[in-house]
Amino acid sequence: MDIMTLGVILLAVVAGLLGGWLLNARRSDVPESAELSGRLAQMAEGLAVSQNQIAERLQGQERVLSQMVEQRLTDFGKRVSDRLQEQSTTQQKTLGELRERLVVIDKAQQNITELSKDVVSLQDILSNKQARGAFGEVQLKDLVSAILPPSSYGFQTPLSTGVRVDCLLQLPNPPGPIGIDAKFPLESYEALRSAGDEAAKLQASRRFRDDVRRHITAIAEKYIIPGETAESALMFLPSEAVYAELHANFRGVVEESYSRRVWIVSPTTLMATLNTVRAVLKDVRMREQAHVIQREVMTLSKDIERLDERVAKLRKHFDSANSDIRDIEVSSGKISSRSSKIGELQLEDPDKDGKPTLAPPLAGGGKAGET
Fold first, then answer.
1. Which family does it belong to (predicted)?
2. For a FRET experiment, which of 19, 20, 62, 165 has its CA 20 to 30 Å from that of 81?
């Protein structure tokens, strides 16, 4: 209840009292009216004082309430602002992480799309026999050129029969050059892998077995030539899956390849085989170098013998020179001795004829000029 409402109520009470007093004044005597008028005046004054006090209290309570409400609103606004700031920071962080994940997802999607294109292109390559052969030759070329030296292999090398071998490893005899075939029958393998029931799977297995056997026979007949190539050849399968399928479920075909001396290799086993070939070539080169070293050692031995002969001749010259030096030293000593004796030579007084006379020769003296 506000101050205006309270004032209206008080005025209504005062008006009611005045109205009642007027009615009573008409009915009562004049002395009583004067007394009542004084009481009413006192009551009106008291009501005015009470109204002022109530108004002041209400104003004070209103101020306190307003301050409390304002403080509560300020605190609530601060909490709301802090909460909104915290939520905004969390949302920004979440949005940042979401953007990063979306970027990763976009990159993954691009990689998947590119991989799908590569898979489709690979399927197109493998579905075409000529393209499949070229793909196998490229993979074979990469493996061989990465492991062996260029002088130890050749691609599309013609044989004496006119057949061109996909790759010919130039090995010394034995075993001799080894041919590698890079074409493989994949159509029957694809049919085997996509077979839906047992009947289709059995039919595809027979076709796959027959195709591989015919390919083994063709390699043995084309690439194994007595006196020209080695007694064995390699059938390169650019697919580890086909290699695993053969060795897991077609052991008879593998055994037949052994009997025809056609070794079936995958990229992994071919790499191991090429490393073995590299070791063999290195051993051959070492043996060749050993012969060269032996030949050079023999030549060096002959040079050492000639050096010994020349040193012996030089020693003889040194011995002769030493003998001559000793003779020279003896002659030099005698010359020194003669010089000393000449220095000790004494002259006597002149004779009567005025000619000087020499002292008698010293004992042990020899002829002049004797060495």
1. Belongs to the RmuC family.
2. 62
Q: Which residues have a Cβ under 8 Å from the Cβ of 243 and sit 6 or more positions away? A: 237, 264, 265, 266, 269
Q: Which two tokens stand for residue 41?
A: 């005046």
Q: Which residues pair with 158 in a beta bridge?
A: 164
For 286-293, what is the mean pLDDT? 73
User: CA-to-CA distance for 103 and 100, rounded, in angstroms?
Assistant: 5
State the residue for tokens 């949302």: 91
d(CA 177, CA 167): 10
Structure tokens at 56: 């002041």
C-alpha 164/C-alpha 134 separation (Å) is 14
Rounded to whole angstroms, the Cα distance separating 137 from 150 reads 16
Q: What is the pTM of this model?
A: 0.47
What rounded mean pLDDT belongs to the chain?
A: 78
Give yes or no for a cis peptide into 174 (omega within 30° of 0): yes
Name the residue ranges covered by the structural domains of the chain.
Answer: 3-97, 135-286
Q: Does the pLDDT at position 128 exceed 60? A: no
Confidence of residue 60 (pLDDT cuts 50, 70, 90): confident
Sort strands 164-169 and 153-158 into parallel, antiparallel or unpaired: antiparallel
Q: Report the percent of the chain where pLDDT is more than 90.
A: 9
Q: For residue 235, which of 210, 263, 271 has the smallest C-alpha distance?
A: 263
pLDDT at site 368: 43
Q: Could you give the CA distance from residue 237 to residue 135 in angstroms, rounded to a whole number?
A: 11
Question: Could you write out the three-class secondary structure of 273-293?
Answer: HHHHHHHHHHHHHHHHHHHHH
Give the Cα separation of 290 and 232 in Å (integer): 29
Q: What is the DSSP string of 313-371?
A: HHHHHHHHHHHHHHHHHHHHHHHHHHHHHHHT--B----TTS---BPPPPTT---TT--
Tell me how far apart the alpha carbons of residues 181 and 179 are, in angstroms, rounded to a whole number.
7
CA gap 286, 179 in Å, rounded: 24
CA dihedral (86, 87, 88, 90) in degrees, to 10, reads 90
Q: What angle, 0 to 180 degrees and rounded to 10, lies between the N-to-C axes of helices 251-259 and 198-223?
A: 10
C-beta separation of 270 from 236 below 8 A: yes
Contacts of 327 (CB under 8 A, 6+ apart): none
- The amino acid present at 127, given as its one-letter code, is S
**109: exposed, middle or buried (Cβ count in 10 Å: 0-12, 13-18, 19+):** exposed
Q: Which of 205, 272, 277, 265 is nearest to 239 (CA)?
A: 265
